[in-house]
Amino acid sequence: MTTFGTATAISTATAFSEPSGTATALLLLGRGSDASSERGVECPGDLPAPSDPTLVDRARAAKQKLGDRLFVLGHHYQRDEVIQFADVTGDSFKLAREAAARPDAEFIVFCGVHFMAESADILTSDAQRVILPDLAAGCSMADMAAISQVEAAWDVLEEVGAAGMTVPVTYMNSTAAIKGFVGRHDGLVCTSSNAKRALTWAFERGQRVLFLPDQHLGRNTAVREMGFDLEDCVLYDPHKPGGGLTAQQLREAKMILWRGHCSVHGRFTLDCVNDVRNRVPGVNVLVHPECRHEVVTAADQVGSTEYIISTIDAAPAGSAWAVGTELNLVRRLANAHPDKEIMFLDRTVCYCSTMNRIDLPHLVWALEELVAGRVVNQITVDPDTAHYARLALDQMLALPQTVSVD
Ligand code: SF4
């Protein structure tokens, strides 16, 4: 049986254990680099001071000078100070498609995280350049599935005779290398909106699915929406030999879930749901499918970021909502709907810390460098990886369309 190593941690990394027990290594934000991580390096530039009172004017002026050559994308979880400069806002997939729909924009400044910028680079033309204002803006979930680990896991499946009828499916929130792996093995990418359709497609072609990297989205979709039992799902731990599973467990599983999770959505617990129901009688609990299974099971409604936004938009005045997703988005929803009672599901602050690396000083710096004719922090995916990742993305786009998971 194949044994494979754990992710490399450099001297500036700290290890910690997430609630569900996945050990991971994190760079101190903005410092150093780790070749095995999707996180990048410290900013090479001369950043303006965060206290500079002219930052908003400078960002505005740089945008104006660049005109149609520039297109700024803003993920829903971004800070207000940054999102105000976005030409379009959305979830990761919507933003990548928006970039592809603007072939005349020479520079795509992606206010999101690294894997999103990679997807934009894959879907846009060679002439377009994708820029991530701070290379330290990674995604802890994407980092939980390194390509070397996934290739080793596939070797394990081959050794036990389980690879042949296994279809790999990866969540959009994964590195380009993982998307490329999935494309090479005739699988596909999914989003939180189309995970059920993606799994249905996969089960028409195989007996089991290797679902990367978010165990919760995989489990919630299979059990809550497709009628599988929890016992049909096994958890593959890349830090243990053979994933910590026996050959029989791997052969009999319907869903082999990668041991990854979102460090933001993983914070919500069943206690949060019970607590808010006690405090606010009649409250509707609305959560993202990256939340743990027991949270999703206890919620009233479950859906993607876009689903959460449209549900709150359509909710009647006077209704109360406890929302389990990233705090910047929940705060903006609450501000946009003063006629509704909108609250955060957890009592403690829960930002996506890596997404929040993109702040106004980094945005101003990246834009002003473009004005000066210098492209900084460009994100590129090598042609071979991009080719296979594109196959996996195109397969997703070819899925029959429905509105949403809920
Ligand atoms: S919210 Fe979670 S999945 Fe999204 S970028 Fe942050 S860590 Fe990654």
Descriptive overview:
There is one protein chain. With 406 residues, this protein is an alpha/beta fold. 37% of the residues lie in helices and 16% in strands. The chain is built from 16 helices and 15 strands. The longest helix has 15 residues, at 383-397. The protein is globular. The two termini are 41 Å apart. Bound molecules: iron/sulfur cluster. Iron/sulfur cluster binds next to helix 5.
What is the tally of beta strands?
15
Question: How large is the count of helical segments?
Answer: 16
Can you list the strand order of the major beta sheet? 8-7-9-11-10
Distance between the termini: 41 Å
Largest sheet: 5 strands, parallel
Strand content: 15-25%
- Stretches with pLDDT under 50, minimum 5 residues: 1-33
What are the SSEs and their pairings?
Elements: E1 13-17, E2 23-27, H1 55-66, E3 70-75, H2 80-83, E4 88-90, H3 92-100, E5 107-111, H4 114-123, E6 129-131, H5 140-143, H6 147-159, E7 166-171, H7 176-184, E8 188-190, H8 195-203, E9 208-212, H9 215-226, E10 233-236, H10 247-252, E11 255-258, H11 270-279, E12 284-287, H12 293-298, E13 301-302, H13 305-314, E14 320-324, H14 327-336, E15 341-344, H15 360-371, H16 383-397
Parallel strand pairs: 3-4, 3-5, 5-6, 7-8, 7-9, 9-11, 10-11, 12-13, 12-14, 14-15
Antiparallel strand pairs: 1-2
Helix pairs in contact: 1-15, 3-4, 7-16, 8-9
The structure holds iron/sulfur cluster.
